[in-house]
Amino acid sequence: MNETSTPVIIVGAGLCGLSAAYHLEAAGFKGYTMLERQPAAGGLASTDSGGGFSFDRCIHLLFTRDQYLLNLLGGGREGGGLKKFSRRSYCYTAGTYTGFPYQQHNYGLPLRVILGNILGLVRARLGAGAKNAKNYEEWIYAAFGSGIAENCMLPYSRRLWAWDLKDMSFDWAEGHMPVPTVRDTVLGALLPRKKRFGQTSEFWYPRTGGIGSLATSLLEKIPAAKVSLNASVKAVNGPAREVIMADGRRLRYETLISTMPLPELIKLLGADVPEPLRVRAAGLKYNTVHTVNLGLEGRLSGLAGSAHWIYFLDDAAVFHRLGFPCNFSKWLAPEGCCSIQAEISESERLPRNKETLIADTLRDLVKTGILGEKDILPASEGGRVRYAKLSTYAPAYVICDHARAETVAALKEFLGKYDIETRGRFGEWEYLNMDRVIMRGKDAAEAAMRKNI
Q1: Each residue of 330-362: pLDDT tens digit?
Q2: Residue 354 CA to chain centroid, in angstroms?
Q3: What CATH number corresponds to the domain at position 359?
């Protein structure tokens, strides 16, 4: 029997797993190994190339003011590997482009929409607030009022999550969605606002290499001998503290740091997990995100020429968000070219036809004024499109339904009995940005060292 023993095994070489490995290494703890089933590290925080263009796996940006994290990733100094941006983003609704966040940038919208947004917000402030809200939809009404809810937050959220908002909790939302004051909403309706609101007003992005360079920067700090790629886990024997590999190897551990999706980990544990917990894990919800990646000749014009991203709030377009990679880094597109990335969510409750998504996206780029009719033709036929590819990611966003929090807590408690630390967006089944994912890897490393030192 091919059996070895390692104090700490890390499963998954995405940002969370790489962070755990780095922090173990930096602390002088050498008794670990990292397993990744793919041929390269990075997970969803990777960058793929084709036709001379490069696209991240969905729109990824680093929102952080944590100097420790910036220094770790090489961006906390002038000329470092990361570049700091002041956000340029917009919303499209009612046939109009406005600033972002929508709730503080109503200037330019139809008068009836503006009045409805302001009056709804005033009524919400005079009401009971969110304390009586029972679900995400009710929380949106309580926090933003009926106008902003129905003109922005509800239609956009349904498109982003591809889910019934009444079946979602709202405990996660308050830190992600800036709730406006009445004053800011009124001022934003009277004149264009230059002030940037919210935690996303500034962000960082790699100068070269796309978002995948974040994973590369961490991987370079970890000895190559500690990383096993193309290493698939077949099963986990919790009582024996053992990871069973697809190639037959059996790896004993004292602490297992898992960053794989929580339902997948429970499946690998098999009959060691009580049936009720297996059922609850299988019931954790998520959606799928498709990206349509387009490489075009020439430059973008209008708002798209300088925008970082645009939200499409209503059904005017198949996509709910556009990103413009060429506006983050010149490295992502050939000289004299530009790029667009469209995001489209899908779930069992909002099915999509993958066969038509590229054509649907091109059509709606014309409909919303981003491109002209001739632009969407292939470059070989006198148009501008040099590259077009559809990519699909699942799980993409975890769905915070009403059962999620209790289910995750119960699963974590159970996994703790087998010395398993589950971390990361999918390991904890939580809506986490990249900065928090990296720091959760640090937390996992510290927890493992407390057990093994």
Answers
A1: 999 999 999 999 999 999 999 999 999 999 999
A2: 21
A3: 3.90.660.20
